[in-house]
Hints:
By secondary structure, chain A is α+β, with helices and mostly antiparallel strands. Chain A has helices at residues 25-32, 88-95, 105-118, 124-130, 142-158; strands at 4-10, 13-19, 51-54, 57-60, 73-75. Chain A folds into 2 domains: 4-78, Beta-grasp domain (Ubiquitin-like (UB roll)); 88-158, [2Fe-2S]-binding domain (DNA polymerase, domain 1, Orthogonal Bundle). Chain A has a 5-stranded mixed sheet, sandwiched between helices. In chain A, a hairpin with a 2-residue loop joins β1 (4-10) and β2. In chain A, α2 crosses α5 (142-158). The longest helix of chain A is centred in the C-terminal third of the chain and has 17 residues, at 142-158. Helix content of chain B is 33%, strand content 25%. Chain B has helices at residues 9-17, 31-36, 72-76, 79-84, 86-93, 98-101, 106-111, 119-126, 223-229, 236-249, 260-282; strands spanning 2-4, 22-25, 44-47, 57-60, 63-67, 129-134, 137-142, 147-149, 152-153, 160-166, 173-180, 191-199, 205-213, 220-221. Chain B is globular and about 60 Å long. Chain C has 3 domains: 35-133 and 205-252 and 259-291, Aldehyde Oxidoreductase, domain 3 (Alpha-Beta Complex); 297-449 and 600-748, 2-Layer Sandwich (Aldehyde Oxidoreductase, domain 4); 451-596, Aldehyde oxidase/xanthine dehydrogenase, molybdopterin binding domain (Aldehyde Oxidoreductase, domain 4). A 7-stranded mixed sheet of chain C has the order 3-5-1-12-9-10-11, with helices on both faces. A 5-stranded mixed sheet of chain C has the order 7-15-14-13-8. Chains in contact: A-B, A-C, B-C. Chains A and C meet through α2, α3, α4 and α5 of A and α2 and α19 of C.
Amino acid sequence: MSQLHVTTKINGDETEFLCEAEDTLLDVLRDRLGLTGTKEGCGTGDCGACSVAVDGRLVCSCLMLGAEAEGRDIATIEGMATGDQLHPLQQKFIEMAALQCGICTPGILVAAQSLLERNPDPSEEEVRYWLAGNLCRCTGYDKIIRAVMETAADMRRAS
Amino acid sequence: MRYEAPRRLEDAVSLLAGQDGAHVLAGGTDLLVKLRSEMIEPEMIVDIKRIEGMREIAAEDGGWRIGAAVSGAEMGEHAGLVADWPGVVEAAGLIGSTQIQGRATLAGNLCNASPAADSVPAMVAAGARVRIAGPNGMRDMDVIDVPQGPGKTALERGEFIAFVWLPARGEHSSDAYLRFIPRTEMDIAVVGCGISLSLDDGDRVTAARVSLGAVGPKVMLVEEAAEAITRRVLDEAALSDLAAACSAAATPIDDKRGTIDFRKHVAGVLARRAAVIAAKRAKGETA
Amino acid sequence: MALDDTKKTREFKVVGTRPDRPDGIDKVTGRARFGADMVAPGMLTGRILRSPHAHARIVRIDASKAKALSGVKAVVTRADFGEVPEDVADVLDNCMAGDKVLYDGHAVAAVAASSPAVARKALKLIEVEYEVLPHVTDVDEAIKPDAPVLHEGRQQETVPEGMSQNVIARSEFGHGDIEAGLKQADRVVERTYRTAATHQGYIEPHACLATMGSDGRADLWVCTQGHYMVRNTCAAILGMEQGQLRVTASEIGGGFGGKTVVFLEPVALMLAKKAGRPVKMVMSRSEVLRATGPTSSTSIDVKIGMTKDGKITAGFAELRYQGGAYPGSPVDMGAMSGFAPYDLENVKTLGWDVVTNRPKAAAYRAPGAPMAAFAIESAIDEAAKGFGLDPLEVRLMNGADEGTKASYGPTYPAIGLKATLEAAKLHPHWSAPLGENQGRGVACGFWFNFGGDTCVSLNITPDGTVTVSEGNPDIGGSRASMTMMAAEELGIPYDQVRTIIADTGSLGQNEVTDGSRVTFAVGLATIKAAEAAKKEMCRRAALVWGIDEEAVEWEDGAARPAGPNAGKFPPMTLKEIAAIASNTGGPIAGHHEVNAEGAGVSFATHMVDVELDRDTGSTKILRYTVFQDAGKAVHPSYVEGQFQGGAVQGIGWALNEEYIYGDDGILQNAGFLDYRIPVASDLPMIDTVILEIPNPGHPYGVRGVGETSIVPPLAAIANAVSEAAGVRMTQLPMSPPRVLAALQAKAES
Lengths: 159, 287, 749
């Protein structure tokens, strides 16, 4: 089996890796690049724990081949904070207890960030539908939805 | 397994024609699930996203040509397409989550050949056609002729769908698609219904196409249902006839997603609701 | 232990506030390490071959081709495990089948290989010859005398002759005379209720990383609710001494009871032993659904007698729970808990533990209780509404209180049931108007709460910060609670304490994170450990001051002379005492080891509004309010989170979640696509009202809160849907086809 050589950008950094043709982007991130913040909950695109942004578009990294990353710009949870400065969503999730076990949290944060980039003033319904592909079994979503809405309000005030 | 990402249509065709067990990758939202669950073990995957035009929505013959790798999210962001074919766009927009929307395509949804595919009834109602690239050049086919049964398509070796084409949208015309799922998101359609119609100045239906998904081995165009509302105003009687025609046409099975009785009944319910939405849109009202 | 008067009126400084959780930053940045996130040098991939049959005899397993494949380092089958103690025999058989496979997905062999691809290939090379046997997956079918039998000779003596051997055990609870009670009733409601099996649905699949040296020492990294349980169970199965196996708990991505047992761990250790290399195993989602613990599916007969003014004269329930392929369904807990909210003269429950060809049921949040509550709370609702009575008033009239003899035996101390009902009655939700096709339902729920073996070690560092070591995985913010209780007791700020989950080598035995026990029991041990440290610090101060240690007391984070007679000394803060610890006798620590008792039962009342789409049978949850007694809410945000999470799991159970088996005994929905847990867009906000009726058994009055919240929702939603539909729903899930069929049947009748 000859491996593929892929050049891509991950969280702003030029990155090269070798992978098998059948490796998913999730496999590559977790097992080859050590970026284990992106989680596998189902491997079938049903839970959203593996959410990343590819060229600014939210996708499930379990449903994309590593080879497809060639020349793309990939953003994962590891790139969300700037140095020791948390993203406002990250800060708000901690403040408002919008996580319990935390396994779905990276995917939800990446998805919520993608929403707020497109829609700085989402309604509750818009937040709920945008995040419908991110399963959380602990919280009942209440505090997650509130945290996203409050972050959006804070960010609107700050801008 | 090999991974290839050709830049030209012809190269994709020759790769697909030259290799047993070659699969096309566009959005990958079905293909990768099958790959991971070992339902398929491809020798080669041909990624068509880097071929010119595959990620474009372009005006053509008064309608729209949609590249095979255009995602649902990209369709939803295209104002012209949304204005002309809101039903097709919303059907594509119902496939999976926001994340799936970032990748899933009309062509992929069609080639997966699931009877429950959301975008297919909408495309059938719209009278959509596909342009197929293959060893003998390009050929066109009506969307309804592509699926041949669960998991089977009319495509031949070396062929793949390069574009979907939606026809010109006439005056006082619009479409709608509704599906029933147990939750509000993330489910496969238990029943789907697409309706495209045109109205005259007196709100009378002048032409209609009605299609149903998930109630038979293939998406079906229900001519009796279209006939039931053509030349009529969509009043209670017309809608009842439409619903009855759809329920009668449905030939579903009992499975983990729904029962025969439920699906037949709901086929009528959705047809009635979709017709009302399509008619409102055709009149220029928001729906 | 008694709650003394000073503590009843205690003013808390840290407890009751909402500080940031200590693991927050790790969890929002992706740094937190869960089960699958660990690697080891030379690590192999372990994978399991699973049965494609519901019930079959294993005639032959030939792994020679797999062993010959390049990159395969070990193959394990049941033959690799020796005889094991009886109490873990079923556990091992569930982890690796012996003579028979008992359900679709049952493990039959495992490999360790150099890559996932090689491991996948190796599994395909293992030849298993099966003799397929008849199977049974439905509980009512399994109890029939002619049903296929899973286990011969396992039936207990309490089961009458003539019943299928699949009926393993009988349990009975109650007091009074049911027949006499029914005679006093003006109305008797008698119905059979059914619930489908549901899965805990944690988002993190099971995962572990095992290493074992040729000297027999082993290490295991694992996502579990109880690493001490994992150690003890694996040591027994592998014939090891417990001290030779060190287990470290990873961060855990949800459990809800499903991670209180082992599945992969003994197999991973055996593979690591044979291969001489570390082995990592991670389940796929489909493996999780096919082969780890769902809950029981049930069939329950209820008979309730009520007078026209709402007095319950008799309550009877017969419960049949299938617990999957091995004995031990939670039917006894269903039988104990169903009538627990009520003060009844005549009450009786009868439970039957039944085996079927399904995965062995594991605990799921208040195991056994939600189904019993669904049946009983539905019947009470129907009886009350039959007389036009207010369902909250009827529950208040019959509700249990301090001094009530519970249906399962004990007499209650101070409890919070009526407080939750009174709060519900006064809440604006109860009086809000309802629209067309809408219904409102209420129901009560009860959970025992557990205590159990617990160790906490609290250490004072030389600079006067505090570390707490405890042995229970933090599944939903418990490190924050422990930190808060330690800070409270020591009188120091929250950020001066850090709590860690210690490995099995660092503390004595700790019971699993279950039974809503952690904030109660580990909290209690933390407070006691802090008290021990305080006592020692007072002694050190006494030494410095040259006074009696009894003359020193601890207040606001410092040792102080206790009263004017003790002498005049400025207070010595914790930091000051820590700084000179080396000169006053050495390091300072407190620890506490206990089998905690006095957990304090917990009650809740739930209220829900639904709207039906009468054309499709679809139910929308419009509004939801949880009223629950927390004893004392240590971190109210995480208490609310438990209430909300339990309610939403209950919503899933009530409306859409179910294990669907085909006639072939194969699970048809082994994925999150068709095993439909609630998504964000399905739900409204979940309002919460925290009641605080102190638990006399805890120094701060804490009761467990994690489980009670899943007990009422099934019934509350069924009561709401039944009201909106005008027809009584008796079977879960109330999926759209089922509700539509009920509406159509009613229209036709």
